Amino acid sequence: MKKLLALLAVFGLFFVSCSDDDTIVDPGPDMPDPIQYSSGSANFSTYVALGNSLTAGFSDAALFVDGQTASYPNMLAGSFAEAGGGAFSIPFMADNLGGLTLGGTPIAGNRLILDFSTGSPTPVPVSGQGSTEVSSVLSGPFNNMGIPGAKSFHLVAPGYGNVAGVAAGLANPYYARIATDPSATVLGDAASQGATFFSLWIGNNDVLSFATSGGAGVDQTGNLDPTTYGGNDLTDPNVFASVYNTILQTMTAGGAQGVVANIPDVTTIPFFTTVPHNPVPLDEGTAAALNAAYAAYNGGLLQLQGLGAISAEEVARRQISFSAGDANAVVILDEDLTDLTAFNPALINMRQATADDLLTFTSQTIIGTLANPMDPTSINGVAIPLADQWVLTPEEQEMVATATANFNATIAALADTYGLAFVDANAYLGTVASTGVTQADGSVVTAVYATGGGFSLDGVHPSPRGYALLANLFLDAIESEYGATLPRVEPLGFTGLYIN
């Protein structure tokens, strides 16, 4: 027993000695294993982006260096670099002003900033002259082949980058800066780079220009010759489908994989949701004077209703009435109304706007101004109806919706045919407009003009934060289709509005 106690004492001294000599460090919580990024079945080594201004990084009504850096393709390229992606070259503008010159003559304005000098923030072009000269052709190739202003069929049009045709409106100044040859095509220059992966977001302008012009263009459905289209026309759906298939066929010919996005509902962007249909304030005297002035028009409509020339429903729609207060609807021209000028030239196609009409963002520059500076009563939108270019009527909105649905059906079907990742930008931007998207810090990105964080000051193009949200949408689709694992973009790292 004595031997056992002695042995235990020795062991006790041993343990005490170990405790004194060795410090036990608490390792803390287990650290997660680092994420292993992977391209899955895709190959990101040579990435080329095709598209229009949305691809280029256009923002605040211009293309400029910071906007190009914050383009969604550049964000994608940064993510791809973690999974075998290569360098991504951008045809940078010469400065952060954004203006373009041709032979020294300005042909495109600078980016917009908010001016607070009048107390109410107003978007105005930043001062100075942009130094990007169109005729100074850059040496490529460039991975970002986003061409502001391009419609679908422009990507396959020879000469679209001919500097000599820019002044006449026959060529695109942004493509002229980077075209490999005056007769080159955007698609040809993109395909020549041997892309292993590509993105395509095209077709927005096939709808957008019609909408932003207040439906002043023509629906070209049935016309298969896009060389005869006007700048604000809606593209024929068969032309769109043919061109889109050609683009995908060309880009995938060498085995490239890719991602495509559909076209958003343009009527939900701030360009159409900022200016109300009833922004006119009137006092009692002015309202009474206007009602007296429109009495003959209203009476003439009733007379023609009695003759059966017009329905009671249309008469009710066309009756014009003002009242004292801040919420009087503007008077507009509407080409879809019955033409009554054969009966009386004074009975032009005018009515007051309703909540179903969408006034363009640019209409605020004309509402309340004088059509005739020498006549103080010639107030645009009140005594003088707003022209077609300032309003997108319900009938015109339906034309936009039909075209968008046709184009999106083509995009979805061809994405499936070619086995490409598909981004439903339409649904996503609809969510931004309707409920907003909550960020990691609890803030919500919406489509409210200037303060929502999702769109830039032109009311059409996303802000850098908006582009970051879209980049993540693209990454989601790519991971789903190709089994990739890619790092995400942090939208909060990008501004929702440039402040200078």
Automatic annotation (TrEMBL):
The keyword Nucleotidyltransferase does not apply. Residues 1-19 form the signal peptide. It comes from the Bacteria. The keyword Nucleotide-binding does not apply. InterPro entries: SGNH_hydro_sf (IPR036514). Keywords: Signal. GO terms for molecular function: hydrolase activity, acting on ester bonds. This is GDSL-like Lipase/Acylhydrolase.
